[in-house]
Amino acid sequence: MKAILWTKYGSPDVLQLGEVDNPTPKDNEILIKIHASTVTAGDCEMRRLELPLMLSFPMRLYAGFLKPKRIPILGQELAGEVVETGQNVTSYKVGDQVFGTTGFKFGAYAEYICLPEKPADAQGTLTLKPSNSTYEEATAVPTAGFEALHFLRRANIQPGKKVLIIGAGGSIGTLAIQLARYFGAEVTGVDSTGKLEMVQSIGANYVIDYTKGDYTKSGETYDLIIDVVGKRSVPRRLKLLKEDGYYFLAYAGPSHILLGRWMSMTSNKKLKIESSSQKKEDLIFLKELIEAGRLKSIIDRSYSLEQAADAHRYAETGEKKGNVVLAVI
After folding, report:
1. Which residues neighbour 278 within 8 Å (Cβ) at sequence distance 6 or greater?
2. Counting beta carbons within 10 angstroms of the beta carbon of residue 83, is it exposed (0 to 12), middle (13 to 18) or buried (19 or more)?
3. How is domain 2-140+297-327 classified at the architecture level of CATH?
4. Using alpha carbons only, what angle is made at residue 36 by residues 92 and 189, rounded to the nearest 5 degrees?
5. CB-CB contact of 123 with 116 (8 Å)
6. For residues 197 and 181, what is the distance between their CA atoms, to the nearest angstrom?
7. pLDDT at 259
8. How many Å apart are CA 183 and CA 179, to the nearest integer?
9. pLDDT recorded at residue 255
10. What interhelical angle do 254-266 and 53-63 show, nearest 10?
11. What local confidence, expressed as pLDDT, does residue 62 receive?
């Protein structure tokens, strides 16, 4: 089968089209013909091996110290069709259309993949694809959807609460806007000029163009801030958080960890650096919202499998609106 091989750590050029053997499902696995995958920030960080300090060295030990050996193929999200099942599988049958994540196995930049019917922790999550979504639309939901849902639930967002989303035009941001509105919150989205019309079209009550001035001086405060940008401006942005409010950082560095500990000792504000648990029930919840017309993924560009390196280059420009998708088959 065709696959995009991760040959070493570095630029998108390390992603090379190659041929590998077709996988064979074990008794507890299903074989999926992949129709679509995505280029997530996590895929790009893994490719470069530019991860937070507490993850970089352990991940290098796991994947391969000098070059990736244990994870030869990237790709965390997929949507596809079941083409074979192991003899102990009861939840899926040949022909089922599924979507989900692969966990630390990665491997979705390929024509086929085997995944366990009932994955353990870190083995990803899978369920039937929304009936009203294409493969490309479905594959862009799980990872960002899990994160956005986790942030909103941890902050106990309810009607009347105010949510600020920094980086609202990205994969997590576009789903967080829609989920926050579903829970009844008032949503303000922050991003660059070219993304604001899209951000407002999917439900943001207000939008802020960060290129037009320092919005941290606005005097507004929020019950929840979802920051998918991070960088050095976090201390300034914390001024926008209400007492007892939650500030979630999707991408954090060592300085943010220290800041979070300091805040826990000196303030009622909560700076959280954590990831979601990828639970099947949450994926089913997201699927049901999609089928009810309450949630949709935003696709900026779609590339062929052979164009995976180009897709990574575009995803790293910071210009993408929503998601970058790989059409595999």
Report:
1. 101, 103, 124, 125, 142, 146
2. middle
3. Alpha-Beta Complex (3.90)
4. 110
5. yes
6. 17
7. 67
8. 6
9. 66
10. 140
11. 82
Q: Is 175 exposed, middle or buried (0-12, 13-18, 19+ CB in 10 A)?
A: buried
Q: Give the start-to-end residue ranges of the domains of the chain.
A: 2-140+297-327, 143-272
Distance CA 307, CA 35 (A): 15
| Residue matched to tokens 């939840």 | 91
How many other C-beta atoms lie within 10 A of the C-beta of residue 142? 30
| Residues forming a β-bridge with 299 | 323
Mean per-residue pLDDT pooled into runs of 10, the chain (329 residues): 96 98 97 98 90 70 86 97 98 98 95 96 94 98 97 96 97 98 98 97 97 92 93 83 91 65 73 87 98 98 98 96 95
Q: What is the pLDDT of residue 60?
A: 80
pLDDT of residue 191: 97
Q: What is the pLDDT of residue 50?
A: 78
Q: How many CB atoms lie within 10 A of CB 210?
A: 17
Q: What is the pLDDT of residue 79?
A: 98
Token duo for residue 25: 């499902």
CATH architecture, range 143-272: 3-Layer(aba) Sandwich (3.40)
